[in-house]
Known about the structure:
By secondary structure, this protein is α/β, with parallel strands linked by helices. The chain is 32% helix and 24% strand. It has two domains: 2-176, 2-Layer Sandwich (Ribosomal Protein S5, domain 2), CATH 3.30.230; 192-230, no CATH class. α2 packs across α3 and α4 (120-129) packs across α5. The longest helix is centred in the C-terminal third of the chain and has 13 residues, at 201-213.
Amino acid sequence: MLKKVFGSAVFGVEATTVTVEVNVDTGIGYHLVGLPDNAIKESNYRIAAALQNNGYKIPGKKIIINMSPADLRKEGSAYDLTLAIGILAASKQIKAENLDRYLIMGELSLDGNLQPIKGALPIAIKAREEGYKGFILPMQNAKEAAIVNDLEVYGVENIKEVINFFDKDEPIEQVKIDTRKEFEKNLDFPEFDFADVKGQESIKRCMEIAAAGGHNIILIGPPGAGVKFIS
């Protein structure tokens, strides 16, 4: 049986939707294609342990997984949850009629708990642009993604919550952020303050002017000096 699950790849500040096609058929073997890196290739071990520790399993059949577009390099462990849900749905261990309405990302621990991912904000922006109803991701990243309006964001701590959401229609609490309230709170209690930086008065002044005027700024220096691009 063929099932499609949707994830995303982040390059810089832009995200590209990745369609994970999972086909389970008679035979034996696990084949993962579509330019995955080593972290993704190793995901079958994390997925197998996570499913087993939550009452499910990778079926002993021929599993072919294609990450499309196949000519786009996929990197990182954030596809663990995407692949796991696809395998469960394709092997009919769970019913997942609404998979195409959600974008799913998350790294799995061996007990099924989820670890944070990178690029939650650009992924959420892309999901909204492409008309997805919701974005399911680790709880640690939920507030970042919830900044994007007109998109339902669900933070989860364990794969079991995602399984029950699709298979048993058990609701997951939607994460909502009052961006104005968060902004005002950070004005009074900023995480970072230029007052903590000793010296570098001219550079701090340049950054303040660039930020106030919405300009770009670039710092140039030898490797290891701590300079970086800022836009």
